[in-house]
Design goal:
The protein has 145 residues and is an alpha+beta fold. The protein contains two helices and nine strands. The protein has an eight-stranded antiparallel beta barrel. It is globular, with a radius of gyration of 17 Å.
């Protein structure tokens, strides 16, 4: 029994560390983001196509405004994997009730998200030709003081 104690302690420390990382990302992702670039299945979208898009995270809710369209829902971050995972469930918009699986990377004021467009989670943060993936690199919108 006591020989297993170090293993249990190690597992507990790993679980606490994963929870702390998730809480850190949950806090760091909050705010409004605008795309720097977007790629769908290897095709780079024109800057004017993505310029109007805004993504806002508030609590566990997200809100996307793009070309007059509003999508809202809940998101969940999972930091136990590398790259970390993001799941969104649309509550308002054309895909209401749909869960979209993705990966993300968050560093300072840059957020990269890759979603699988056919219900499968991507394996990496890329969008190659024929991959049916959406890859967007965002930058944080700075608030005026």
């Amino acid at each position: 029994m006591y020989r297993r104690l170090p293993c249990f302690l190690l597992l507990a420390l790993i679980a606490v560390g994963a929870h702390a990382a998730q809480a850190d990302d949950q806090q760091a992702i909050q705010g409004t983001w605008q795309p720097k670039s977007a790629t769908i299945s290897g095709q780079v979208l024109e800057p004017e196509t993505v310029q109007s898009l805004r993504l806002t995270f508030e609590g566990n809710q997200y809100h996307v405004v793009a070309q007059g369209r509003n999508d809202k829902g809940q998101f969940t971050l999972k930091t136990e994997t590398t790259p970390a995972q993001i799941d969104i469930v649309e509550q308002e918009g054309p895909s209401k009730g749909k869960t979209t699986l993705g990966l993300y990377s968050l560093a300072d004021d840059e957020l990269t998200i890759c979603f699988g467009l056919e219900q499968e989670r991507p394996l990496d943060l890329t969008s190659e030709e024929g991959s049916n993936r959406l890859l967007i690199v965002y930058e944080r919108v700075k608030q005026n003081p």
